[in-house]
Design a protein that fits this description.
Helix content: 40-55%
Number of helices: 20
Distance between the termini: 64 Å
CATH topology of the largest domain: Rossmann fold
CATH superfamily of the largest domain: Vaccinia Virus protein VP39
CATH class of the largest domain: Alpha Beta
Shape: globular
Structural class: alpha/beta
Strand content: 5-15%
CATH architecture of the largest domain: 3-Layer(aba) Sandwich
Length: 514
């Protein structure tokens, strides 16, 4: 009987495979090689698994087996290597063929060829997905000898029998998708500032998903989707497969991560576009911005040179900046304005992570903020703890907007900035504790002493539409009276204990002749 593989085993094996690159490349760079190889290994195992099933079913009827394989989720073609007009090698474009040829002097080139054949055979799904990774790159992997050495080790690491990813072995567990997310998180921890380009901590993604509460049948969008983790958490929150996912990502390598992430989570129909959302929105319908029931994002904080100089041209197209043009050096309200304009007219919700400056900065940002409040779309402001995000230690907040607020005319402020787990490099909010408390407080939509406060629009106007949570939530805790006599007694007891320890140590050293 085949032993069921555990998630932890798969994660540990994959993380050890990264040793091949440590000392050669930064985590922000070698992640591409590891994640592409994981994707190749997975689709190769699925293909082999299904081939064996069809072989049992159809015996030696190769034509029927071939036709069935042509209807697979991913098609694995045959690679033909030629010397002039002569075919000198022919093999399936999969991981196992590469592993058999791992001693080839042109190994990096062979891997690139396999990926190229895969892309051509699966154009609708894989076009450009592998364009950012070059397994034959001398500038990144070194000369031929060093490059072959690295790639041989990589292929050998993935040959571990415990990394058999056939569906018949791993069952219905989301082992592959979870492993992919695990690796992205580990890479982010080692990538420093670059991690912010593609990774939102899972606890923050889960929190936002719970706050926007996506329902079956809804369209969900992230216009700055990174590797897609926030979209996936929203999808999981739906509780069924009845949803549509949309995203856009400006960085091509990160877009590739997102595409593979969706496939490895068994989501085939997500539409994720590659382009700059602010300069070139690609999610267009009937010559206008698409509308969504749920819009979420953790956009780059205070992005500089985002395209404010093109505001006039933009106004003629999609008119996203009609409340005001955000400062050219800070794109925060550009992302917010875009997201608001893509919200459906009825019942739509939006959750966005922002730096604290968004809550109180004046000028053009103050004008936009005031308009959004006057339009009665801002529903909640949630202050998060510091140092939650990779690449920045600054505190952030989550803004929740709703198109259809019904009878609500106040804004709920929640101060969740003081409750978190202190980590070695990053702080963390626990899903079953802090995330649950924030979500339940928002759902109740009532003031909570020292934690949450409902503020009406008039009071916001009096404060010049300043959304700084500390203005509204009194989190001051009175200091407890100190028993001076008890403290002095405790100090005296400690001094007595210290004297005893010193005496015992001196006695021991004397006995040892020291």
């Amino acid at each position: 009987m085949t032993r069921q593989v555990s998630q932890q085993e798969v994660n540990e094996i994959l993380w050890r495979a990264c040793d091949t690159f440590r000392g050669t490349l930064d985590a922000a760079d070698y992640k591409d090689y590891i994640l592409v190889m994981l994707f190749l290994k997975y689709i190769s195992d699925v293909w082999r698994d299904h081939f064996e099933q069809y072989k049992k079913q159809y015996g030696d009827d190769e034509e029927r087996i071939r036709r069935r394989l042509q209807r697979e989720r991913f098609i694995l073609p045959y690679v033909e290597v030629k010397d002039g007009d002569e075919v000198v090698d022919r093999f399936l474009a999969d991981y196992y063929s590469l592993h058999e040829r791992r001693e080839a002097p042109n190994l990096g080139e062979l891997i690139n060829v396999v990926l190229e054949y895969l892309e051509m055979a699966n154009k609708a799904k894989l076009t450009n997905v592998f364009r950012n990774v070059d397994f034959n790159s001398e500038s990144r992997l070194g000369n031929t000898k060093k490059r072959n050495h690295i790639l041989q080790h990589l292929l050998t690491d993935f040959a571990d029998a415990r990394l058999d990813l056939r569906p018949s072995r791993i069952g219905n567990l989301d082992v592959i998708g979870n492993a992919y997310e695990y690796l992205i998180g580990k890479f982010a921890a080692g990538a420093g500032k670059k991690a912010g380009e593609y990774y939102t901590p899972p606890e923050v993604s889960i929190l936002i998903a719970k706050l926007v509460d996506p329902k079956p049948g809804e369209r969900i969008c992230d216009p700055a989707c990174g590797s897609g983790s926030l979209l996936l958490k929203c999808a999981q929150e739906v509780g069924s497969d009845n949803y549509s996912l949309y995203g856009q990502e400006a960085i091509s390598g990160t877009w590739s991560l997102c595409a593979m992430n969706m496939f490895l989570h068994n989501i085939n129909s997500a539409r994720v576009e590659w382009a700059d959302t602010l300069l070139e929105p690609k999610l267009i319908e009937n010559d206008d911005l698409m509308k969504f029931d749920v819009v979420v994002a953790n956009p780059p904080f205070s992005l500089d040179k985002w395209g404010a100089d093109k505001a006039g041209e933009e106004a003629r197209k999609y008119n996203r900046w009609h409340r005001g043009v955000p400062p050219k050096s800070k794109a925060d309200y550009a992302f917010i304005s875009h997201m608001v304009e893509t919200m459906a007219e009825q019942g739509s919700r939006m959750g966005v992570v922002v730096p604290h400056g968004v809550l109180f900065r004046s000028g053009a940002e103050g004008k936009i903020r005031k308009s959004l409040i006057e339009e009665n779309m801002l529903d909640a402001v949630i202050a998060l703890p510091p140092n939650l995000f990779f690449g920045t230690g600054i505190p952030a907040a989550v803004l929740i907007f709703r198109r259809d607020r019904g009878q609500r005319s106040s804004v709920l402020f929640i101060d969740a900035s003081r409750e978190y787990d202190i980590g070695k490099n990053q702080n963390k909010i626990r899903v079953g504790v802090e995330v649950k408390k924030i979500a339940e407080t928002y759902k109740a939509y009532q003031s909570v002493d020292k934690y949450a406060c409902l503020v009406n629009g008039q009071d916001l106007q009096k404060n010049d539409c300043n959304l700084n949570v500390s203005h509204y939530v009194d989190s001051y805790e009175e200091a407890q009276d100190m028993d001076i006599d008890a403290v002095l007694k405790h100090i005296h007891d400690l001094e007595d204990e210290l004297g005893k320890v010193k005496g015992d140590m001196a006695h021991t050293l004397t006995e040892l002749g020291l």
